[in-house]
Amino acid sequence: MTALVSDTLDPVLPLTPIADPSNTGSDMRELRRRVQDAGLLRPRSRPFVFTLIVTGALLAAGIALLVAFHGFWGVLVGAIFLGIVSVQLAYIVHDAGHRQGFQRRWQNTLVGILCGDVLSGGSYTWWVKKHNEHHAHPNHLDMDPDIDLPFFAFTPEQAREKRGVYRFVAKHQVIFSVPLLTLVSYGQRIASIQSLRKERSPWRRWEVVAMLANLALYVGVPLILLGPWKTLLFVVVHQAVSGIYLGLVFAPNHKGMEIVDNESMLDPVRAQVLTARNVKGHPITDWFYGGLNYQIEHHLFPSMARTQLGKAQPIVRAFCEERGIAYYETSVVRSYVEILSSLHVASAPLRA
How confident is the model over 147-161, as a mean pLDDT? Predict the structure, then answer.
């Protein structure tokens, strides 16, 4: 079979799945063997601890900035800076959820609750459950929570099902896409509270306490330090920056790529590769995306440390060439063009 490794992709037309129902896992076992032989699946605690220290230092610097300069411009710059730091904290929560940091589960959970619940105001256990569903069924119409969003339609069929204000927003979703990202962090907080009310977990009580601590730190301390109006400015700008940043990072991973349903016959490797998009690596890009620009490698090996994903890329790419699997990588700018194009096409029935 001819290799299908492409550097360009028409976002209007999704990739055609290359299915082999008899291949239920043999490709995955072989690919895993190659990656394991390269020593890329071993735990990497030192880089994880280093990331914790650096991110903690950035967080402390942002707080010091607010303390030292709490005039209008100081609050504005501090909120923007801390919004960026918040996403870096989210990457740590993500890594801990995949047990990339430490071998023992409780250590990763402790980091996840501290960075997620206490410092970010989002439930760690809620996010892990939701994210595991996404990894198990990426871009699946009925089973991936990341493409079940009320204001967005990722297929013409989803668009036709929208009603009321959701239909109006979906009709113009290209225009509303970035402004709606400012609400992402609020949505995560609301979903976290709802989950802690309904779901039971061994960590539920700890998370409730942690979320209350976040409320005291995030709202109470700024009220004392800045007063009500500057606190409102800080919260609005911080939430907007962190929401837009999160959206810009996570959208390129799968949006505009192959969407599957129960009729799709994809083996484990193709189910992950065909539904994901890589963004070309660079030290700055890798930091900005938290390593998630290597989305294909991450989805194939979720527990692989982010520092190893770039090293795994040549192995995965070569394997896809051998098997005739379309491995797709593009630039930062091109990825957003493709996303907006796919959103425009998906909402076309509402404009007809």
Answer: 94
- Give the DSSP letter of residue 265: -
- Rounded to 5°, the CA angle 105-111-115 comes to 145
Residues written for the chain: 352
Angular region, 256: left φ>0, alpha ψ -120 to 50, beta rest: left
Domain count for the chain, please give it: 1
Compute the distance between CA of residue 230 and CA of residue 34 in angstroms, rounded to an integer: 54
Average the pLDDT over 61-80 and give the result: 95
Nearest to 219 by CA among 209, 201, 232: 232
Q: Which domain holds residue 239?
A: 5-351
> How buried is 163 (Cβ within 10 angstroms: 0-12 exposed, 13-18 middle, 19+ buried)?
exposed
How sure is the predictor about 263, in pLDDT bands with cuts at 50, 70 and 90?
confident
| DSSP annotation string for 25-77 | SHHHHHHHHHHHHTT-SS--HHHHHHHHHHHHHHHHHHHHHHHH--SHHHHHH
CB 115 within 8 A of CB 93: yes
From the CA atom positions of the chain, what is the Rg in Å? 21
